[in-house]
Amino acid sequence: MNLKHRIILTLAGAMLSACAQHGLADEPAKSEPLKALLITGGCCHDYTQQKQILSEGISARANVNWCVIQQGGSSLNTKIPLYNNPDWAKGFDVVVHDECFAEVKDLDWIERILKPHREGVPAVLLHCAMHCYRGKTDEWFKFCGVTSHRHGAQYPFDVVNLAKANPIMEGFGDHWVTPNEELYQVAKVWPNTVPLAQAKSRETKKDEVLVWTNTYGQGRVFGTTIGHHNGTISQKVYLDMVTRGLLWAAGKLDKEHLHPLNPADRIALPDPTPKAEMKKAEAKE
Predict the structure, then answer these.
(1) What domains does the chain contain, in order, with CATH numbers?
(2) pTM for the predicted model, two decimal places
(3) Rounded to a whole number, what is the distance in angstroms from the first to the last CA of the chain?
(4) In Å, how far from its chain's centre is CA 80?
(5) Mean pLDDT value across the chain
(6) CA distance 110 to 112
């Protein structure tokens, strides 16, 4: 091989290497899917459809696998079997609370739910989760980041973006007019809460915080009171926001995780509900 051929081969190899490196730089680095637990059930909402809208919509945007648990029927006063496992949150990267059990007031039970979050398990709180577990203390509301006891009539409202530079609100725009929805009335915003969006209430004439972040103990919390109707949570702007909020809570709002779950990586995560408790619950139904 003469010198000319050697130079040509060396240059060709360098060009191929550069092209390969450029291609890899444009693609997200390989990462393991996050392990998310979605807890849903209780009163007043179409949780059967909403669990699918949320889990599928988020996994279409982020590298997330799910354990989806719907328990408690349509009652406001059910202690769901999941929480009988003291390690119910163990092994999950983030927990989404989308349940509605306002009449469960047992403080020991509430503490069982709060403990892993206070110790660092990230949380996402959606809609009626803010009206759950109304015990004789404010600990649940402290975890949520806002205190709310009621909502007004259903109507479309204008959600104003208060934090355009916040990565959770990227792509949200200046504002978003919801479909027919419930606007929760917020009695208190807790000290660790950072409001991200608000809307004017027809009833209170106040700007009600309805998207925020919070810190509870060692755990990050993302919350929104929006999300009563299927038509609302199906909207792109809503799913984009909740996806980014979930990744932020888990400390993974980055290119490595902000891409659709690869179908080859999709698995159903194990249900941590004690089998004996599940059998008891099934026997009551």
Answers:
(1) 32-284 (3.40.50.880)
(2) 0.88
(3) 82
(4) 20
(5) 90
(6) 5
